[in-house]
């Protein structure tokens, strides 16, 4: 992959306008196209909640390149609506969002799943906060996974693939 660790990552605020065409994402997508393996997120639906337009676009491109159907929204309320309407395989949610945060989204989603006796949706908290307090709160509130920004494309895809497969098998 790319030797520049910053360019090979997605979702960091330091990568504003050029994020969608950064060497890291472009290199990852080109490497993916050359591989003859199956798409790792084929036939999955993912709700992506990210308020930064460049990060949202980059993450959408990444997940779609792996075969996922992505519904990308900019705030928690739209994320809740999309998740309740679609019953996605996974939700990837930034924690720092305008008006209502990602914790609001996961509380609403988990409440809906409990009341409707639905299996829990795979939920990944995506945040720039690296402290243990945020990680523990995320897991305690209902996210199964926690990933810091900027996210390494391969790590995010692998995490989603493995978590969705485990949910399907269980």
UniProtKB/TrEMBL annotation:
Modified residues (4-aspartylphosphate): 94
Organism: Paraburkholderia ginsengiterrae
Database matches in PANTHER family: RESPONSE REGULATORY DOMAIN-CONTAINING PROTEIN, STRESS RESPONSE REGULATOR PROTEIN 1
UniProt keyword terms in alphabetical order: Phosphoprotein
Pfam families the record matches: Response_reg
Record-annotated Response regulatory domain positions: 45-164
Protein name: Response regulator receiver protein
Domain of life assignment: Bacteria
Listed GO biological process terms: phosphorelay signal transduction system
